[in-house]
């Protein structure tokens, strides 16, 4: 009821009081709800810590995979990609056929794209048996999306190897023209004008494109 009334702090106090009692029928539910409440209030460190204790103490609980996913989300918001990936992968390990596993895989893909390491995503997805037939078009799309995120971040120095990586792995990729333009622009921004000209020459040498 306190949650429905948007009295989050009071709800936390009540749940902590139940847990402090140390016994009773609602210890497990209170621990789970406390962790979820912390996360809903953007208190990610507290939420992660509480739910980690929860899954450790109640490994066979009904909400086990949901709690693991919530911990993954908490660490993602805390900027800890390594721990976030570890917990999302635990979801897939524990319940590979569940809808939670599909959601976890989507989160894992998003993290690998954000850190421009889609090759590791494909390797993991295949090894986990989540994806057995990854098409070339999907590889092309994710590889470019990851590189584009680096370019759009405004860090030209990091965008150069990201775009070069895409062009090397997909020399005739669907987004080849975009990659060449971004690469030329990035080289110009770091002062490599000759390199920028070379990439623009490659771009105009392609068949008709938006540039």
The whole-number mean of residue pLDDT values reads 90
Through-space gap between termini: 58 Å
Q: Which geometry do the CA atoms define?
A: elongated
Largest sheet: none
SSE string, helix = H, strand = E? HHHHHHHHHHH
Rg over C-alpha atoms, rounded to the nearest angstrom: 23 Å
What's the SSE blueprint?
Blueprint lengths: L7 H14 L5 H14 L3 H14 L6 H14 L3 H14 L4 H16 L3 H10 L8 H17 L3 H14 L6 H14 L3 H12 L7
Descriptive report:
This protein has 211 residues and is mostly helical. It has eleven helices and no strands. The radius of gyration is 23 Å and the shape is elongated. The mean pLDDT is 90.
Task: Describe what is shown at a glance.
With 211 residues, the chain is mostly helical.
Keywords for this entry:
211 residues, mainly alpha
């Amino acid at each position: 009821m306190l949650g429905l009334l948007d009295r989050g702090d009071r709800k936390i106090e009540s749940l902590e009081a139940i847990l402090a009692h140390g016994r009773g029928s609602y210890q497990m539910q209170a621990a789970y709800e406390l962790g979820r409440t912390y996360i809903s209030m953007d208190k990610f460190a507290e939420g992660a810590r509480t739910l980690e204790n929860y899954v450790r103490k109640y490994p066979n609980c009904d909400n086990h995979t949901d709690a693991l996913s919530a911990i993954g989300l908490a660490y993602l918001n805390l900027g800890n990609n390594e721990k976030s990936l570890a917990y999302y992968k635990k979801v897939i390990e524990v319940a590979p056929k569940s809808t939670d596993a599909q959601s976890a895989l989507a989160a894992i893909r998003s993290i690998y794209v954000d850190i421009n390491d889609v090759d590791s995503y494909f390797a993991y997805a295949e090894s986990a048996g989540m994806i057995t037939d990854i098409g070339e078009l999907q590889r092309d799309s994710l590889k470019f999306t990851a590189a584009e995120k680096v370019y759009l971040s405004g860090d030209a120095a990091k965008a150069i190897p990201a775009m070069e990586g895409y062009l090397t792995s997909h020399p005739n990729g669907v987004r080849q023209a975009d990659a060449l333009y971004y690469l030329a622009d990035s080289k110009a921004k770091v002062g490599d004008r000759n390199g920028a000209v070379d990439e623009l020459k490659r771009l105009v040498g392609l068949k008709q494109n938006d540039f």
